[in-house]
């Protein structure tokens, strides 16, 4: 029996993500938590003739506790999205404390759940979550994931003309690093099946994957950022985690993890000088079973991208850790 909880379930990502989870036969119980509107969202979804029993919770009446108790997997898209002209780091001021408080709830009510963080800036909110779980003595690095699947989905889509696949999702393109601008590093040289990106198209393609989020923010013109593609990506990653937890083998996904706590991660931490990094991770019954180092043998251009990535990511990670270790005055 799988209980999934979505925190931020009434939002632009939360609603379509909850819809996808509701229609999945892998989910038996679906708990929707938000500061607004969850009774309506849950009532609406509950009319769908699928397996999951769906309930909505608000902060009153111990709603967070009720939503989280017994949860096996918690997905967090709570927090504000970008508007044109903003960076993801501009969201830190508001989203850092939202994520901190929700993860405190996880530490208390479902410390063994898989935790999937979507809220931006992911490069900082995942370190925040790790620090909160550490402080509560319940941190299991194998169970905490920053969701970077949208970068992978974009890489698959934007390279379709070169991969030649009718279904672009059949190509595996590792996208490593973090989830923000130059910290996003697509490794086209490691794609399977292999394909060639023409030299004169390479730079623009990399930029499009790195700054794909801006395309959506600009097109939405003040009405938020990617929601539908993110719901698809978040669902795709959640399904992988659930399937692996049920014993399916051979599931490998790029995701942002705490390297020292995952087998194989120390080597990547040493190569990058970073504790958190999105890399290919083999998923298993207990979550992240193994971090796979694919940084060996990358091209010279990819090495340059990785250099810029690690420089930016370092500060983002430190900012998240510092927010918990040296909390700002209230
Ligand atoms: P949104 O404003 O539409 O929805 C956010 C929801 O969070 C709202 O319903 C709001 O009520 C809720 N919320 C706020 N504070 C809360 C709290 N304390 N507890 C529970 N719920 C709370 O925003 P969105 O478009 O759904 O985006 C959500 C977040 O996801 C943003 O930070 C955005 O930047 C991020 N995002 C990440 C990725 C990624 O690839 N990781 C992709 C797209 C968006
Ligand atoms: C994205 O990549 O679409 C998200 O991180 C949202 C954003 O702010 O761009």
Explain the overall architecture.
This is malate dehydrogenase. Keywords: NAD, Oxidoreductase, Tricarboxylic acid cycle. Its EC number is 1.1.1.37. By secondary structure, this protein is an alpha/beta fold. It has 2 domains: 3-146, 3-Layer(aba) Sandwich (Rossmann fold); 149-317, L-2-Hydroxyisocaproate Dehydrogenase, Chain A, domain 2. The protein is built from 12 helices and 11 strands. The protein has helices at 14-23, 38-45, 63-68, 92-109, 122-135, 149-158, 160-163, 199-210, 212-220, 228-245, 265-272, 300-325; strands at 3-7, 29-33, 53-57, 73-76, 114-117, 144-146, 175-177, 184-186, 252-258, 276-284, 287-292. The strands form 3 sheets. It has a 6-stranded parallel beta sheet with strand order 3-2-1-4-5-6, with helices on both faces. A 3-stranded antiparallel beta sheet has the order 9-10-11. Helix 6 packs antiparallel against helix 8. The termini are far apart. It binds nicotinamide-adenine-dinucleotide (NAD) and (2S)-2-hydroxybutanedioic acid. Nicotinamide-adenine-dinucleotide is lined by residues 7-8, 10-14, 33-36, 77-82, 91, 95, 98, 102, 118-120, 122, 147, 150, 179, 224-227, 230. The site of (2S)-2-hydroxybutanedioic acid has 10 residues, from helix 9.
């Amino acid at each position: 029996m799988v209980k999934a909880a979505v925190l931020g379930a009434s939002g632009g990502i939360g609603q379509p993500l909850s819809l996808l989870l509701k229609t999945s036969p892998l989910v038996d119980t679906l708990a929707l938590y938000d500061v607004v509107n969850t009774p309506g969202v849950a009532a609406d979804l509950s009319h769908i003739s699928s397996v999951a029993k769906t309930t909505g919770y608000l902060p009153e009446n111990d709603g967070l506790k009720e939503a989280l108790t017994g949860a096996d997997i918690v997905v967090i898209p709570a927090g504000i999205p970008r508007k044109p002209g903003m960076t993801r780091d501009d969201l830190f001021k508001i989203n850092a404390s939202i994520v901190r408080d929700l993860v405190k709830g996880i530490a208390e009510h479902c410390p063994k759940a898989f935790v999937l963080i979507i809220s931006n800036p992911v490069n900082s909110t995942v370190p925040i979550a790790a620090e909160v779980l550490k402080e509560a003595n319940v941190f299991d690095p194998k169970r905490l994931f920053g969701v970077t699947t949208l970068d992978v989905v974009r890489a698959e889509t934007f390279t379709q003309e070169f991969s030649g696949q009718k279904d672009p999702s059949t190509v595996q393109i590792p996208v490593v690093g973090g989830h923000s601008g130059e910290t996003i590093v697509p490794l086209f040289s490691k794609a399977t099946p292999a394909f060639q990106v023409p030299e004169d198209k390479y730079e623009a393609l990399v930029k499009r994957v790195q700054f794909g989020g801006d395309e959506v923010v600009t097109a939405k013109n003040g009405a938020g950022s990617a929601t539908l593609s993110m719901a698809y990506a978040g669902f795709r990653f959640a399904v992988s985690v659930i399937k692996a937890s049920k014993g399916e083998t051979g599931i490998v996904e790029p995701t942002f993890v705490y390297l020292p706590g995952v087998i194989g991660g120390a080597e990547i931490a040493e190569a990058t000088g970073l504790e958190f990094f999105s890399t290919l991770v083999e998923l298993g019954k207990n979550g992240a079973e193994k971090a796979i180092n694919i940084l060996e043998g990358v091209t010279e251009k990819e090495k340059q991208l990785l250099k810029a990535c690690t420089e930016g990511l370092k500060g983002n990670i430190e900012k998240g850790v510092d927010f918990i270790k040296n909390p700002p005055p209230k």
